[in-house]
Design brief:
Strand content: 35-45%
CATH architecture of the largest domain: Sandwich
Number of strands: 18
Strand order of the largest sheet: 2-9-8-4-6
Largest sheet: 5 strands, mixed
Distance between the termini: 115 Å
Radius of gyration: 35 Å
Number of domains: 2
Shape: elongated
Number of helices: 2
Bound molecules: calcium ion
Helix content: under 10%
């Protein structure tokens, strides 16, 4: 028979073993390996959110995911001209469990990262990325001025999470030809001018190539008084590039006219000699600057 003292001793051992079993359990299977997805953070787990899914902040292998915002753009590169407009589609998505507000910013820079005077407008600057939903789409409108820098530039769109998920940047490279196209639509057989008068002159730099494009369905003949700027009058037979406007009239309806390079600073006007009208001082002007 046990003495009362021995019985008490064995009882304490039993309590001790039971207590040990409880503290060492909590989901370990028989071989002691952690079980990801059981809602209990075990030895090798950085997290356990009770499921086996990734992308919600805790991965399917119970590694803590760092929530982040991702931004991308549909066009990695664009070849365009001066005086052009380009629309970019920006996509913003949350990754690894991110959801929350995002601020967008866009800027144009040259190859030395200096800011370019391009217009970059976003259809939205403050958006909200919801969890487990479709990405948010924003449109960026990029306008390159007629007197801008030809060459290579970039539009950078930065998405910044205000909920601590960092920033993400997407870039479109622009290769800009030193060329300005002047589209001339025809309305009821007459040219519809893109601007009126010297005050609204289109500014271009010396050396920029100009071309007029007939957007109408009938022939037009364009005259200019830009001879001193390198842009001939239509009937300037002395010019080695005489005939460019006839070409526009005869064969380039709806197509591209020839390129003419501006050679000196100053203002000149142009109008449709055929297809009308000559509006005098209200004709469209071009100002060539150094
Ligand atoms: Ca676990
Ligand atoms: Ca999970």
């Amino acid at each position: 028979m046990r003495t009362p003292i021995l019985s008490a001793f064995f009882g304490l051992l039993l309590i001790g073993c039971t207590t040990g079993d409880i503290s060492g359990g909590g989901g370990d299977d028989d071989d002691g390996a952690a079980i990801c997805g059981n809602g209990v953070i075990e030895a090798t787990e950085g997290c356990d959110d009770g499921n086996a899914a990734s992308g919600d902040g805790c991965s399917s292998t119970c590694v803590t995911e760092i929530a982040r915002v991702d931004v991308s753009v549909d066009l990695p590169s664009v070849a365009t001209d001066l005086a052009s407009e380009t629309m970019l589609t920006i996509t913003v998505a949350g990754a690894d469990g991110f959801r929350g507000p995002v601020t967008l910013a866009a800027t144009a820079v040259d190859e030395a990262s200096a800011v370019l005077p391009w217009t970059v407008e976003l259809s939205a600057q403050s958006i909200n990325v919801a969890y487990d939903s479709a990405p948010v789409t924003v449109v960026a409108r990029v306008v390159i001025p007629s007197d801008g820098l030809a060459g290579t530039g970039s539009v950078r769109v930065t998405a910044t999470s205000t909920a601590g998920a960092g920033t993400s940047t997407a870039t479109t490279t622009f290769v800009v030809d030193n060329r300005v196209t002047i589209a001339v639509p025809a309305v009821n057989g007459k040219c519809a001018y893109p601007s009126s008068g010297a005050a609204a002159a289109t500014r271009v730099k010396v050396g920029t190539k100009l071309r007029w494009v007939n957007k109408g369905t009938g022939p037009i003949i364009i005259h200019s008084n830009g001879g001193a700027r390198g842009i001939p009058h239509q009937n300037n037979t002395a010019s080695p590039i005489d005939g460019v406007y006839e070409k526009l009239e005869q064969s380039n309806q709806g197509g591209a006219g020839d390129l003419i390079t501006t050679s000196a600073g100053g203002a000149f006007s142009w109008y449709c000699h055929s297809g009308g009208d000559d509006l005098g001082g209200n004709n469209p002007f071009i100002l060539v600057v150094q």
